């Protein structure tokens, strides 16, 4: 859609529905404000340590509120009584849905209204393209997948809703018709990534995705499984060219040269649930008199949710088409990707529209969240590697991935691409061929989740590398070191990482740690009934999507108080603290107010967008960018580990501009320095310490004094900016105080003194080339993990006793949060390796019977609570920007555990999770 120039956050969709979004502020503000006033000044620039925590007190005191905490009585101007909605889901995907039988409900549990697919059709609702498929399964159709919604039941009272919820869990109301078997649907993606490096170091690649573009084979359905088949040459010449090189690589591996070690292994990973603390929940109210729909939601992607709602109701019949949709975004109790582009808000909106005049709540309990929430993709992988026995250098690698996307597409195509382009991890391999297929199945929908496919492929790769080291007779860390991708080397898509590469340091840290050095001693001193093993794994994880953007607004008042608005979402990632600390580097103190999930505070920018930033052509981008208000995308979901890297960028650049054109001129005036004085230009050598602005040879200035002078002079005291990244930041120049000021942003508005914000036309713009869309990844963080396990011989139980993780993330804006993310990632890795498992299909979560009584997550007793050491490498330079790290800290945990189990038992497990029964069988 195209956003109007009239205003940014409140815009008019093509359907004519006005969409408005805001951070939730209502009657509940008296109980909790998401901002806090924090005392104290910023640390010296750059900030390596936290100077404060924005929401820490609210977290530990239980004052932090989530979407699930709200009822109608908490909302200003809403009717006080809350109705309740129940989303019914089918538990069979092999028979025709023949309708509902609610006779099991007595009179006190009957719904006020039943909403079916037929009602949606009559109402003229539209399914947003991202969620293509029936929102409610029509009578006479076979459900696309287990757990597909079939109806919405709306209840006036909680008691009726609660009775129905419990009863219908015991007795399904879904009537079944004739057996059809599962429906065959098109798969979601089929891609092939092939690279052949040049013959000499530094020589151009012979073939790569960066050179030739991404290619796809054709395939058709047969027997429920896809059969790969090349496209005809006349239609698919690009595919034939790439496939020819790929087949040559596979033939090279199969040649089985005596001097080459060849390993060919299969690996399987399971489906798991994100298991965020707060199941999905929403509150809606449609006021038919005002024709306004208001919603309270907790999602990772506020702008996407608003756009989807506008599409859903944009062509509805007049009685069910609002003129205005207002979405209020609350904190969310965890995301891990499972709340990024979730269809849940669509059902909240439908519940409200079909019970007009009554606020209504749709809230999953844990049974319902298991049945309908987005899951991690299960993978089947075959990996082949050829390694020169003499040198230990990897010469060729081939892999084939099949991932189960479940019943709706969601992010399956993207996960397939990311997992494939990360299939060789941290290694430099000259010949690589990887195919990947994301298939439709009748399982619960899989989508975005922490690790994003790299978790699965790294588990297969790092266990394979360990096996290769053993077969060649090399130390596992030595083999890894010999094959590292160095700075400037090319990834498997043919491009270099454009950030620091720290894997050599990580390997040095792992090798020197006592856990590794004393691994043989640990085995010798183990008790007779216990096996001990130590494992290692290292990984790299991309961060960003290739079309990321951020909105940031920073203001300084005459007393030096700082207020920040940003569009990033707080979901346990500490984004409020991160953006406050990054701004503090330029403005001398922690923010007094940080407001997150705010896409309603940037009206002055007047942004417009068009097209899809992932597929836009260079010509389209060049034409569109002539409009000084155009940007490739307006707001990103808080996902893909982009919080610190992307979410703080616009605010940081805004703060830098305030420093240069507001605080610095004020400081010069206080020091009595004129333009002819060479010190006039030393703004980037000044720094803040203990709330004082310091420049060598001059008296320190209090931050409050500088701010007051800036206001008195009418200098620049506020800035709002938009930033866009496609594996590099867009760069633009803006006219400021006689200068053409260049910055890593693409839109800017400023205020002077207490005046209004005024947008500035950019005098120059350089968006990253559209061709960067086929790079794969350019930003990466690295992490290595050592794990020591003890295995009880009698039971086969595996216990992680000690662990050490070392990571790099550029500048750590909030070290406490980085540590917390690493600890949480470790716990999730333990659960994935040893505990968590959702069976596919009829025995899996789609049957509606799964809860935490059956699904086991890692608890304190499963973790080395007091024996987990996390080390964060300092940035390579004081000005190194922050990197995304929330995913990378989880990924090496899994293969490190598997390698430790092999070290203890001599057996290599190639399917997850590894249960006590599995271990006992091999013992």
UniProtKB/TrEMBL annotation:
Top-level taxon of the source organism: Bacteria
Domain Aldehyde oxidase/xanthine dehydrogenase second molybdopterin binding: 513-864
Database matches in Pfam families: MoCoBD_1 (PF02738), MoCoBD_2 (PF20256)
Residues in Aldehyde oxidase/xanthine dehydrogenase first molybdopterin binding domain copies: 245-484
Signal peptide region: none
InterPro entries: Ald_Oxase/Xan_DH_a/b_sf, Ald_Oxase/xanthine_DH-like, AldOxase/xan_DH_MoCoBD1, AldOxase/xan_DH_MoCoBD2, AldOxase/xan_DH_Mopterin-bd_sf, TAT_signal
Gene Ontology MF, one: iron ion binding
Name of the protein: Xanthine dehydrogenase
Organism: Pseudaminobacter soli
Lineage: Bacteria, Pseudomonadati, Pseudomonadota, Alphaproteobacteria, Hyphomicrobiales
